[in-house]
C-alpha cells in the first residue's frame, strides 16, 4: 500500500478486495489519508484515537467506528497493550446483494457504536469476532464466508443509521406515518397477492378506496417511495428466489413476477440490483 497525497492506494493484496489487520503497536500512528474502501475499526484492548473529517473520536475498549470510503481520517494509539482491528472492504463488490443507491445513502456517514447500543452492538461484535477466528483458519471458502459476515454487518449498520434518522424525526412524523400505513395497508396486501399480474396504479388505489392522485401522494408520503418503485422492488425480490432455480429461464422468471417485457425486467433488475438477472444467477451458482 502507498499514500499519494492523501489517497491511500493498493491496500488489497488478494484478488478479492477484503483486508483484516490486527495491530498491537504500542506507538501506532497513521497519518491523514483516505481510500475508496470502507473501514471498520474495533478496539479490542485499551483505547484508540481516530479523527475523521476533523471530528475526533476517543475510542474505548470494545468501541466500533465505521468510516465510509472517501473520508479523510487519522489514527493514533499511544498506549501499551493496545489491540486494534481494522477491516477494509469495497462496497461495490456487494452490488448484487444490495441496492447501491440505498446502501450508499444509509452508509454515507461515520458511525460510532458502543456497548451501550444494545440494539446492534452485540451482533456486530459477534460478526467481527467470527471474521477474526476465520481469518486464522484460512479455509478455501473464505471469500463466501467474508461476504456473508460483511453483509450481516452492513445490514446492522443500515439499521442503526435508520434508527438514528427515525429517532431524529420521531416527533414530527410518527403520528402521520402511522395513520398513513393504516390507510394504505389494503393496497400493500393487494400488491402482495397480485404482483404477478398486470396491475396498475388505478387497481391498487381502488383496492384501498382512494383516487389515483390521492393514493399516489399518500403512498409516497408514507413509504418515502413511489408506488411504481415499490411494486418493481417487490417483484424483483420475488424474482431473486426464482433465479436461484436454473430450471426457469430468465423469460419465465420475468413473466412469473409480473413483467410482460423481458427488456423491462432486465432494465428494472439492473437499476435495483446493479447487475442483470443473468449475472445475478451466475453469481449465485459461483458461490
Automatic annotation (TrEMBL):
Keywords: DNA-binding, Transcription, Transcription regulation
Pfam families in the record: AraC_binding (PF02311), HTH_18 (PF12833)
GO molecular function, one term: sequence-specific DNA binding
CDD domains found in the cross-reference section: cupin_RmlC-like
Keyword Transcription regulation: yes
Keyword Secreted: no
HTH araC/xylS-type domain span: 185-283
Segments passing through the bilayer: none
SUPFAM superfamilies, A to Z: Homeodomain-like, Regulatory protein AraC
PANTHER family according to UniProt: ARAC-FAMILY TRANSCRIPTIONAL REGULATOR, HTH-TYPE TRANSCRIPTIONAL REGULATOR EXSA
Protein name per UniProt: AraC family transcriptional regulator
